[in-house]
Structures are given as structure tokens and as C-alpha cells.
Task: inverse folding
């Protein structure tokens, strides 16, 4: 049974999810990745292992769910006064976060335990939401802005590809060039 069908907002379900997520984060911080077993997580969270299996299916799906929550942006993108500056700053931050060792681990976890692609879609939606804020802000300032999909295809997708498959040469110069190329399409 898919955990997505079981999830209910608020109440006991939300408390169980938070306790289990906290247990994963605590155990990983205290004892390392090897300590992450369903029985250990359940004991720390104060639930039975069957609760975890029922809700998440297996350890990989649980770790994927935790990773997606950790990849959720905590704040809207900064406003630097112009589209190119806003998008460049966001892309540099995105690259730094995603290419860090924890970021790479979250990407791996998010994808590994995601048999139906829902978590990957959620991660994409987080990035798209941040980019849309930047583009909307630029339009309100009267700037000509490219479309969301252009930024996703020309900035976000190459960054993710390079993080996963060709991490050498990543840095601010790379993101600035991606942003310049995308904005030239306007």
C-alpha cells in the first residue's frame, strides 16, 4: 500500500510523521547512516515498526520522504532588484545547496525511494515555485522575463545534471552563464 494514500493532514498522522522524521534526523546525526533501520527509527519515534511499514512501505521510501522535506525551501528567494541578479543569486544558492554532500545525499534519497515519481515531482515543484516568485517579481517591476519552463530547462536542469553526473567545474561562473543564456531567450 502506498504511503501517499495513507497520509492525512493534521492530527495523529502529522504527529507520527514529525516524530518519525525527527527520529531519522537524530539517529543519522548521532550514529550515522548505518543506524537507520526501521526498528531503530520506530523505537526512537515511539511508534511500532508496522506503523512505518504501513505508512512508508520500506526504509528507502521513508528516507525519500524525509529528503523531500529537507529539500523544501525555507524562505522565498532574495530580492536583489533585477531579474538577472535575482535569478543568478538563486541559482548560485541552489547549486551550493544541491551539490553539497548533504544535498547530494538528499537528492539520492529522494529519488531512490520514489517508485512513482511523486517525490521527484515535489522537488521540481519546489524549484519551480522559487523561480516563479523571481519571474513574477521581475514582471511586476516591468522587466521582460522568460517563461518558467525556459528557466527550468536552461538553468535548473543543467545544474541537476552536472551535480549528478559531471560535478567538475561547477561554481558561480557556471550558474552566471546559464542564467545569461536563459535570459537571452526573452
Result:
Amino acid at each position: 500500500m502506498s504511503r501517499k494514500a495513507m497520509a492525512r493532514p493534521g492530527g495523529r498522522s502529522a504527529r507520527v510523521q514529525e516524530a518519525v522524521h525527527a527520529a531519522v534526523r537524530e539517529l543519522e546525526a548521532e550514529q550515522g547512516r548505518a543506524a537507520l533501520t526501521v526498528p531503530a527509527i520506530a523505537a526512537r519515534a515511539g511508534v511500532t515498526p508496522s506503523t512505518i511499514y504501513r505508512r512508508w512501505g520500506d526504509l528507502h521510501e521513508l528516507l525519500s520522504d524525509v529528503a523531500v522535506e529537507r529539500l523544501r525551501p525555507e524562505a522565498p528567494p532574495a530580492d536583489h532588484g533585477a531579474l538577472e541578479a535575482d535569478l543568478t543569486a538563486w541559482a548560485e544558492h541552489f547549486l551550493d545547496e544541491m551539490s553539497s554532500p548533504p544535498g547530494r545525499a538528499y537528492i539520492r534519497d529522494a529519488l531512490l525511494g520514489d517508485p512513482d515519481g511523486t517525490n521527484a515531482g515535489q522537488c521540481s515543484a519546489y524549484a519551480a515555485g522559487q523561480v516563479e516568485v523571481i519571474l513574477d517579481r521581475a514582471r511586476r517591476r516591468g522587466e521582460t522575463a522568460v517563461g518558467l519552463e525556459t528557466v527550468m530547462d536552461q538553468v535548473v536542469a543543467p545544474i541537476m545534471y552536472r551535480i549528478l553526473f559531471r560535478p567538475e567545474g561547477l561554481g558561480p561562473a557556471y550558474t552566471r552563464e546559464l542564467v545569461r543564456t536563459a535570459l537571452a531567450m526573452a
In short: The CA atoms of residues 159 and 171 lie 10 Å apart. The radius of gyration is 19 Å. DSSP finds ten helices and no strands in the chain.
